[in-house]
Amino acid sequence: MTIVHGRTRTVVRRHVAPGAVVPLHPEAVGFAGHYDFDIAGLAAYRPTGEGRGERQVLIVP
To answer: What's 6-55 look like in SS3?
Structure first.
């Protein structure tokens, strides 16, 4: 399995230019290896890639 994750500090070691390989934190890689999945970093400036987390929150009165 592969999980697409945003470019947060808990997963990405440092931000790089779009199209470059994203260096991941060793702890995140170890966690993914333990639970048998891969981490795919979301491309820079792609707010629609994460879906619900990046769109505006609708406030219900």
So the answer is: CCCCCCECCCCCCCCCCCECHHHHHHHHHCCCEEEECCCCCCCCCHHHCC
pTM of the model: 0.64
* Residues 13-51 pLDDT 10s: 887 777 778 888 999 999 999 999 998 877 776 666 665
What single letter denotes the amino acid at residue 4?
A: V
* CA nearest to 5, candidates 60, 51, 61: 51
Give the residues across from 39 on adjacent strands: 3
Give the CA distances from residue 40 to residues 22, 23, 46, 52, in Å, rounded to whole numbers and listed in that order: 9, 11, 14, 18
What letter does residue 56 receive in the DSSP assignment? P
